[in-house]
Design brief:
The chain is of the alpha+beta class. It has two domains: 172 residues, 2-Layer Sandwich (Phosphorylase Kinase, domain 1), CATH 3.30.200.20; 197 residues, Orthogonal Bundle (Transferase(Phosphotransferase), domain 1). Strands 1-2-3-5-4 form a five-stranded antiparallel sheet, sandwiched between helices. Strands 6-9 form a two-stranded antiparallel ribbon. Helix 14 runs antiparallel to helix 15. It is globular. The termini are far apart. This is Protein kinase domain-containing protein.
């Protein structure tokens, strides 16, 4: 039987139904009696129920231990637990003014402490369909990732609040769960706002650095991690940029761990329209080549703008490559040898993007092949810079 609407008018019907469904599955639901609810109502938040929770969860003590800001930003430490009250304090109680954006499973807020240090707080939605599994999945995957091109988890919150509600004619204590992930703050926001048809918001060196950084992050996920992780929602909105325009992959809510099997059929709804490979659209297959297809779309948009990807159906691959190469070459202001090397690098990147969006997943390159080709172009650029007597080209190999 579906839970009835709570009598407490302050509880939204959908939220109350979600909390009560959790309580129905737990032993606590069967053991809580009306007398506990009466005590809660009589004593208020500072009464018996609150004291009992504080004995189990000593918030004040935890706040003193984990909330000095630098302990959260310590790269070598494990992500600490952060109390909900502290997150409310640094985000102005999750105010609209502090809202940075929203995604499939939550909203992101700017957190600022008394010293001006900043983090991003991703508050997971309290709604049907967003459960412990999705939170645990993103937390587990992020906690494993320590790479220059992947956003870093610096803390988490998983706070359970007991709320009185009416169910089947009786007062019960339902659970309201507050979940949040604390991430390093990226001051330049997402790549999405920099992509335009004019491609005039960054020069070629910056654009190439973003492409290479995304590929390095994906290489970490696919090759360096054991078992590998497939992101499954790679798009400009999920690529964040720091103050130096260095990209970091973000939003691992639907990412998957893969063991020995490299291809898997799924019934889950994944990714974002426009970045989905045909084998997933038609046969629900996911593999590392899912991310490679999405990467190709991102590269093409970085190099040719928002509408660039749609143009590849209107002309041959060679025509499209020549068009993009000419567009970027005309913007380069380098000496002769370096101009030629950069122009070749532009051509290589657009060719990689086109190979990645091949309808046949078996013909798409691996992320290692892509990184190797990019490294070759950097070697040529370094040689050209030395030949012209200019400053040594700064490559991004690592």
């Amino acid at each position: 039987m579906a839970p009835k609407r709570p009598l407490d008018a302050t509880l939204p019907e959908e939220e109350a139904a979600l909390w009560l469904s959790r309580m129905k599955r737990s032993r606590r639901f069967r053991l809580k009696r009306t007398v506990l609810v009466v005590m809660w109502l009589m004593c208020g938040p500072s009464g018996t129920a609150r004291k009992r929770r504080e004995r189990k969860r000593p918030w004040r003590w935890i706040s003193q231990v984990v909330c000095p800001w630098m302990s959260m930003l310590d790269v070598s430490s494990e992500p600490p637990f952060v109390p909900l009250d502290y997150l409310r304090e640094i985000t102005d109680d999750f105010s609209e003014e502090r809202k940075l954006g929203s995604g499939s499973f939550g909203e992101v807020y700017l957190g600022v402490d008394q010293d001006g240090q900043k983090i991003a707080v991703k508050r997971i939605y309290q709604m049907a369909g967003v459960d412990d599994g999705q939170f645990q999945n993103e937390f587990t995957n992020l906690a494993r990732l320590k790479h220059r091109n992947i956003v870093r988890l610096v803390g988490y919150c998983n706070h359970i609040q007991e709320v009185p509600a009416m169910y089947e004619g009786k007062f019960v204590l339902a659970e309201k769960i507050h979940r949040a992930l604390c991430l390093e703050y990226m001051s330049n926001g997402s790549l999405q706002k920099y992509i335009s048809d004019e491609c005039n918001k960054y020069d070629w060196r910056t654009g190439y650095g973003i492409i290479k950084g995304i590929c390095q992050g994906l290489k970490c996920l696919h090759i360096e991690l054991k078992p590998p992780i497939y992101h499954l929602d790679l798009k400009p909105a999920n690529v964040l940029l720091d103050e130096n325009m260095v990209p970091r992959l973000a939003d691992f809510g639907i990412s998957r761990l893969f063991g020995d099997e490299r291809t898997r059929a799924t019934k889950s709804i994944l990714g974002t329209q426009g970045y989905l490979p045909p084998e997933y659209i038609h046969n629900n297959l996911i593999s590392s080549k899912f991310d490679i297809f999405s990467l190709g779309v991102v590269i093409i948009k970085i190099m040719s703008g928002r509408a660039g990807y749609s143009k590849i159906t209107d002309m041959s691959p060679q025509e499209f490559t020549n068009l993009v190469q000419e567009k970027w070459t005309n913007r380069l202001h380098e000496t002769s040898s370096l101009m030629k090397a950069y122009s070749k690098q532009v051509k290589t990147c657009i060719q990689i993007g086109l190979m990645c969006v091949n309808d046949d997943r078996h013909k798409r390159p691996s992320i290692q092949d892509i990184v190797n080709r990019l490294n070759e172009t950097e070697t040529e650029c370094t040689y050209a810079a030395r030949k012209d007597g200019s400053l040594i080209y700064q490559d991004s190999r690592g």
